[in-house]
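Entry 14. Structure prediction run on the chain below.
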Amino acid sequence: MTLVVDGATHVADEVTAEEVKMQVAALMSSGQSTSSAAKITSKQLGVPRRQAYAAALGIQRDKE
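Output returned:
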């Protein structure tokens, strides 16, 4: 009996928290809402939406 296990074919580079924050900030400065910026960042960078949203909230707090 032979068992073949197929692993990941492409391993994405790890995205840093600073990269997430920069992406979210750019989107928010172009007029995207906090939620939209987080959603777009999540899809584009392949990070959890929760992580992107937390970055967006941090940026929003810094502006206040």
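The chain is about 60% helix and 0% strand.
Filed with the rest of this week's runs.
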